[in-house]
Design goal:
By secondary structure, this protein is an alpha/beta fold. The chain has a single domain, classed as 3-Layer(aba) Sandwich (Rossmann fold), CATH 3.40.50. 45% of the residues lie in helices and 15% in strands. It is built from eight helices and seven strands, in the order βαβαβαβαβαβαααβ. Strands 3-2-1-4-5-6-7 form a seven-stranded parallel sheet, sandwiched between helices. Helix 4 links the parallel strand 4 and strand 5. The model has no long low-confidence stretch (mean pLDDT 94). The structure holds NADP nicotinamide-adenine-dinucleotide phosphate.
């Protein structure tokens, strides 16, 4: 299948690790010029070396998505370095676990800045650049806490539900400019984040990380954790010319774990 991605410019926030790096890799393999960003200079350098070792044309930028000024600067720098922007994958962030008593208001605010305000500002900056090129793609990675809230994941549930509202509203607005906005919703993906966090937040129930991981894998119909490339393949399809009438959708990529029909 020809995805018609060769020569497109794709920015992946949080493209220095895990899911984001796999997305940058797959887009690069399809011929995109990729731009990645993160906060850690060493991680950024390692990711760029990995991409370039595969003959991918890659640009790297230090930027914190929680800071709107960084998003404005990032959009300008990517457009200057690569000649424009066709595709944005809004992926940067982390999972915040804990109950109401455990998550401070400052932690929730940081999560909202990272997951909602940053992508908001980035969309404001890149939409005019995409319009200049006749269209584009804005794809958001949204963890499944946004559809299935819970006591131990309350902060991520709040931020991710807001991301769903953002994607749907933005798709309604930008679809008219041939900028297609969609979401990919991972769960149970092995990555540096999943490896270092008790993602289910069930420690408060007395379950160890090992107990949770064993329980999680068994609960997935496909019987395993996913890998970052599973998410990357879905993103590459949504970014491609083959997804030209998909707008405002959110696609679960989770081995069938999510039983919600919404
Ligand atoms: N793994 C899963 O099962 C899973 C499930 C649901 C949702 N997700 C979501 O998928 C996304 C990627 O997760 P992952 O598993 O690949 O995690 P990861 O390996 O920890 O990668 C996170 C990436 O985001 C960057 N990042 C984090 N905060 C940032 C900020 N404020 N500004 C700029 N960059 C930032 C990190 O780089 P720096 O640290 O250098 O900034 C890194 O490149 C996250 O948003 C996560 O919440 C993951």
């Amino acid at each position: 299948m020809n995805l018609e991605l060769a020569g497109k410019v794709a920015l992946v926030t949080g493209g220095t690790s895990g899911i984001g790096l796999a997305i940058a890799q797959r887009l690069g393999e399809e011929g995109c010029v990729v731009a990645i960003c993160g906060r850690d200079a060493d991680k950024l350098a390692r990711a760029l070396a990995q991409l370039r070792a595969g003959s991918i044309v890659a640009h790297g930028f230090l930027a914190d998505v929680a800071q709107p000024a960084h998003m404005e600067r990032l959009a300008g720098e990517v457009a200057a370095a690569a000649g424009g922007i066709d595709i944005v994958v809004s992926n940067a962030g982390t999972h915040v676990k804990g109950t109401l008593e455990q998550v401070t208001t400052a932690e929730l605010e940081k999560q909202l800045r990272t997951k909602v305000l940053g992508p908001w500002e980035l969309a404001r900056q890149v939409a005019p650049l995409m319009r200049q090129r006749g269209g584009g793609r804005f794809i958001m990675i949204i963890g499944q806490a946004g559809k299935v809230p819970g006591a131990g994941i309350i902060a991520s549930a709040v931020s991710n539900a807001a991301q769903h509202a953002f994607v749907k509203s933005l798709s309604d607005h930008l679809g008219r400019s041939n900028i297609l906005v969609n979401a990919v919703c991972p769960s149970r993906i092995s990555s540096p984040l999943a490896d270092r966090l008790d993602l289910t937040g069930e420690v408060y129930l007395g379950r160890s990380l090992e107990q949770q991981e064993a329980r999680w894998g068994a609960q997935v119909p496909m019987g395993r954790f996913g890998v970052p490339k599973d998410i990357a393949n879905a993103v590459v399809f949504l970014a491609s010319a083959r997804a030209s009438f998909i707008c405002g959708a959110n696609i679960d990529v989770d081995g069938g774990y999510q039983r919600s029909i919404l």
